[in-house]
C-alpha cells in the first residue's frame, strides 16, 4: 500500500500559500486493511477514511463514471488495482492533480506543475464535465489565486460553458452553492468569481437577481478591500437589490439566516440610514426598531459598517448617538409608575422620539 498527499495541500505548498487541510490518497489497499489499521470510514458514496490520530482524510484510489444527473450522479470504482494515475485523472484541475510521496517526490502525470508556473487553471480531462460543482470550484480558485496571476484556460472555460448550457447546474444543492459562494466571497478578489461565472454563462443561471444589481461588483470590491467579513461582503453584493430579490437569492443559495437578515435589512434600509436628516423623529425610531438595534446592537454595528463602506460621507455617528440616547431612557422607571405593559411601551417610544427630534 502506498499513501500520497494530493489536491489543495500540494498545490498551495508549491505556490507558497498556507495549507489549510491535507487530503491523502491510498493506493493498493482495501477498506478492510484501513479499518484494521484503525481508520474510521466516513464516505457514504466513496471509500473515504479518517486517520485514527490526525483525523485527516484518506481516500482509496478510485475511478468514477457518470451514471446520472448532478454532482453526485457517479458510479465509483475502487479496488487495489486502481493506480495513482487513474485516480489523479478523475480530478478537476491539473494543479489539483499532483501527488507527493512522503519523501517529497512529486508525481504529476497531467502537467500540474507547468500550469502552476504559467498560472493556468486547466481541466485534467474531458471528464471535467461530469461534475457541475466544478464550474463553481474553478471560479472560486480563479478568485483565490487571482493575486498570483492565475487565469482559466480557454478550453476549460468552454467546458464550463457546456456544463452551464446543459442545465446540470440546476442539480446542485443549495448547500453546495452556498458553501462555494461563501468561500469565494471570502477571497481577496471575490469579483473574479462572478466574472468567471459570467464568462461561462453560469452567472445568469445561478444568480439571476444580480443582473439588476448595477453596483454589485463595485460594492463587493469595496467590502473586500476593507477586509470586511463575509457577511458584510454578501450584503454589499446584494446592495441595490429590491428586498424581494434579496429574499429570492438567499433562498436559492440557502444562505444562513445571519446572512439573509443582514442583506435584507441593508437593502430595505440603506436609503434611510444614509439620510437621517430626511426622516422625522418617529421615522428615525422606526429605523432603529426595524434594525432591532436595541436587542441586536452588534448587528446594528454591522449595518453601520456597511454604511461607512458603501455610502462614504454618510453620518454613522448620528446613528450611534441616536441609539445611545434612546437607550438612556429608563424603562424600569416608567414601569415603576404602575401603568399597563402596553402603556409602558407607548411612553418608552414617546420618550425615545423626543430624544431623536
Ligand atoms: N476534487 C475534484 N472535483 C471536485 C472536488 C474535489 O476533482 N468536485 C479533487 C481535487 O483534486 C481536489 C481534491 O479533490 O484538489 C480535494 O478537494 P477539496 O478538499 O474540496 O479541495 P482542494 O483542492 O483541496 O482545495 P480547497 O481546500 O482550497 O478547496
Could you explain how this protein is built, in words?
It contains 18 helices and eleven strands. With 357 residues, it is of the alpha+beta class. The strands form three sheets. The chain has a seven-stranded mixed sheet with strand order 3-4-5-2-1-8-9. A two-stranded antiparallel sheet has the order 6-7. It has a two-stranded parallel ribbon with strand order 10-11. Strand 3 and strand 4 form a beta hairpin. Helix 10 (216-225) runs antiparallel to helix 11 (230-238), helix 13 (257-274) crosses helix 15 and helix 14 (281-290) packs across helix 18 (341-355). The longest helix has 18 residues, at 257-274. It binds cytidine-5'-triphosphate. Cytidine-5'-triphosphate binds at residues 7-8, 20-21, 23, 91-92, 96-97, 131, 133-134, 137.
List the defining traits of the structure above.
357 residues; 7-stranded mixed beta sheet; two-stranded antiparallel ribbon; 50% helix; elongated
Topology, please?
Blueprint: E1 2-6, H1 8-14, E2 23-27, H2 31-36, E3 40-41, E4 48-50, E5 57-60, E6 63-66, E7 74-77, H3 84-89, E8 99-100, E9 106-107, H4 112-118, E10 120-121, H5 133-144, E11 151-152, H6 154-165, H7 174-185, H8 190-199, H9 203-206, H10 216-225, H11 230-238, H12 243-253, H13 257-274, H14 281-290, H15 297-310, H16 316-327, H17 331-335, H18 341-355
The structure holds cytidine-5'-triphosphate (CTP).
Cytidine-5'-triphosphate is lined by residues 7-8, 20-21, 23, 91-92, 96-97, 131, 133-134, 137.
